[in-house]
Hints:
Layout: H1 2-26, H2 28-35, H3 45-68, H4 71-81, H5 83-94, H6 99-122
Helix pairs in contact: 1-2, 1-3, 1-6, 3-4, 4-6, 5-6
Amino acid sequence: MLTPIAYGLAIALVALVVFIGLRFLVVPRPAAAGYGVPAKQDGDPAYLTIKGLRDLTFGVLGAALLIFSSPHAAGLYMLVVAIAPLGDTLIVLRHGGTKAVAFGIHFATAVAVLISAALLFAI
């Protein structure tokens, strides 16, 4: 019973990260607004591309671990990758984003990733 839940949550999170990465690569300004810190019109678009590539890479790596590795290895990945949404929480708060976005999106994502790690460790 626990295995489908653990893998289902992990797959959903990995798919979400892949989607976010692709969104930053395809439509960076709307993606940045959704992130909680809108991009400035005269800002350097390379940073938005970096964000997209980072998230896409995290997602592809997570998918590879879920497909080709053990639940323990996938759990370690989730544990480590939780650093990103925790950092995103602080970035949004520090750069004028709302607390609702910082905690409702980024911190909640970090909690979901940590729950996913715990579930993967439990199977």
